[in-house]
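User: Some background: our group keeps a shared notebook of sequences we're curious about, and every so often someone picks one and asks for a predicted structure to add to the entry. Today it's my turn. The entry only has the sequence so far, pasted here. Could you supply the structure so I can complete it?
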Amino acid sequence: MKTVLHSVSYAGFWGQFRLPLEEFIPHAGSLGYQGVSLVAKRPHASPLDMTPERIAGVKKLLADSRLECASVAAYTDFAGAAPGIPLNEMQVAYIESCAKLAHAWGSRIVRVFTAYEHGAPDLKVVWGATVAGLRECADRIAPLGVSLAVQNHHDLAVSTEAFVELLAEVGRPNCEAGFDAWSPALQGLSGDQLYAVAKKMAPLTIQTTCADYIRLPRYQYHPEHTNYVRQEPDLVMAVPFGDGFIDYASFFRGLRDGGFDGWVLYEMCERLRGGGGMENLDRCARKFVEVMTQRFMS
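Assistant: Of course. Here's the predicted structure to add to the notebook entry:
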């Protein structure tokens, strides 16, 4: 396994310190990472901003920093909820552009998502649109030698059972899994259960993305009872890797036993304990490399 820093961590989306793409790449190298995953939207690697000169510049920066481009991180939602708007066609064109960037930077992976349900009255329609979208994306990027890494992030197929069925129905060898521990952990899996799903998914997985969180129970005061009523769901807050509730020991044991030996990404994509200043981001990024190296990669 190799450690990768996701550029979303320094993109400023949650109020954290923002580094321009060309500064982020050498900075990731200085923090001890072996690769980077580059956000395919502004302010980083939006295809709209990637001129031939800038693409060449990023490639040189990667080489000079002795880093590999593990993946290009695209942002998709194949629900296609707006009537009359060809959203899936737009997304296929976007994924093609992302695949060209990945190919230019020596990566074989474009990370994608499935779909949010958006209160859809017929989830089978959403499922069908997602399968069709993933198939067309996979077919169009296959000549470049690039694969989709479908992350278990959005509503559709977020359970492991549904995820396996979705990938099987797409049925393309270059449509694989970007299987993370976060979703099954939030579904209540840990220990032997988390180990089992990680081992099951390992042969299908080409990258995994890590972050860690704590649960903060929520209560609402009811003055008529002079008491609080428990609220669902819990508030989930990001913390440094290893300080949260996700059972990464069982997760990585399952991945390893299932044969996974791919990219392991770290992302800080939420408001983070300790704040969004550069010093705290760097401290957390270094801790991930230390924990991975000492506990899970030896």
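Suggested note for the entry: DSSP finds nine helices and ten strands in the chain. The first strand starts at residue 2 and ends at 6.
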